[in-house]
Specification:
By secondary structure, this protein is mostly helical. The protein contains nine helices and four strands, in the order H-E-H-H-H-H-H-H-E-E-H-H-E.
């Protein structure tokens, strides 16, 4: 056991690990606290800041944190998933092709969730960093009022397209997270390693 641990190599740097778990916690806090506005908003700010930092880190971080290390395209990702369900997928020290694709998808949808949330916050509460811009234009990105007799929001009497898309995108993001967790469990079983623990310690076996 000790010899095995000493032979492991450092794969995930501290920032990747901290950002990974903090974003996960922040997303679920925000998802579950829609009615607790301050908590919801600040959780969103934290997620947004970390997503932005992770994107930058994808260009300047260490080897396995860089996009160039794990972006392989949809064909490679699909082939990896097909091999994974047949328990014959190749093992990767860093992100697998499917894992890399999931990283990109999650970053994109998390960013979209944050941006639409900021627009919604500006629109409904006249608050947040986009509030001045929203006040000047009265409509960001072509936001249009959507009639909704069952969902009244404040004094506006309806939710904009951005408000609706915020909830939809957040739900899609949740679905991606569930799929990600299932993929990690399956890959851990197929490759005989605990991938969740590796994202805590940062270490994996070299081959």
């Amino acid at each position: 056991m000790h010899a095995r641990a000493s032979s492991d190599v450092q794969v995930w740097d501290p920032f990747v690990r901290i950002a990974h778990w903090t974003v996960a916690v922040g997303f679920f806090v925000a998802y579950l606290t829609e009615d607790a506005k301050i908590v919801h908003v600040w959780a969103g700010y934290i997620v947004g800041a970390l997503v932005f930092a992770r994107i930058v880190w994808g260009f300047v971080g260490p080897r396995h944190a860089r996009f160039s290390d794990f972006i392989t395209g949809p064909v490679a990702a699909t082939h990896y998933l097909w091999d994974l369900v047949r328990a014959r997928a190749k093992r990767y020290v860093g992100h697998s092709p499917a894992g890399g694709a999931m990283v990109i998808a999650l970053l994109a949808f998390l960013a979209a969730t944050v941006v639409t949330g900021l627009v919604r916050y500006a629109e409904e509460d006249a608050a947040g960093p986009l509030a001045p811009l929203y006040a000047q234009t009265s409509s960001i990105g072509g936001a249009q009022t959507v009639e909704d007799d069952e969902n009244q929001v404040g004094e506006r009497g309806g939710r904009s397209a951005f408000s609706e898309s915020h909830e939809v995108i957040a739900s899609i993001t949740l679905g991606l997270i569930v799929f990600h967790v299932l993929g990690v469990i399956l890959a851990s079983f197929v490759h005989h390693e605990n991938l969740a623990r590796a994202m805590v310690t940062g270490r994996k076996r070299p081959d």
